[in-house]
Write a structure and sequence with these properties.
Largest sheet: 5 strands, antiparallel
Shape: elongated
Strand order of the largest sheet: 1-3-4-5-2
Helix content: 10-25%
Strand content: 25-35%
Order of helices and strands: HEEEEEH
Number of helices: 2
Distance between the termini: 23 Å
Oligomer: single chain
Structural class: alpha+beta
Radius of gyration: 14 Å
């Protein structure tokens, strides 16, 4: 895989501006796929950012409880009106990469 295709395939959360953030609110209209436990994060840092505005897909991110202040993805939210669990998992496998070090 070349650098060009990986840059298009995976979102770079470090380039999201402050206007892309908003507080996380649970919503029954969304399917949530958890990648990391919420208890691993400082609660007041949890926010959601758009991954794909056209599909309504959001990442829930926050600062983890660790020696270093690092931002990690806690979960991905998919609109239930457009995604089944299987379709959401397939979308993640094809379009998203995460390192849990």
């Amino acid at each position: 895989m070349s650098n060009d295709s990986s840059q298009k395939k995976y979102i770079n959360l470090s380039k999201i501006g402050k206007n892309g953030f908003r507080k996380v609110v649970e919503d029954s209209k969304f399917l949530r796929i958890t990648l990391r436990k919420s208890s691993d994060f400082h609660g007041d840092t949890m926010t959601q950012v758009p991954i794909s505005r056209s599909d309504g897909i959001m990442a829930i991110v926050g600062i983890i409880k660790a020696n270093k202040a690092e931002c990690h993805v806690s979960a991905i939210r998919f609109p239930k009106s457009q995604f089944s669990t299987e379709k959401a998992q397939k979308w993640l496998a094809e379009n998203f990469s995460i390192n849990n070090n």
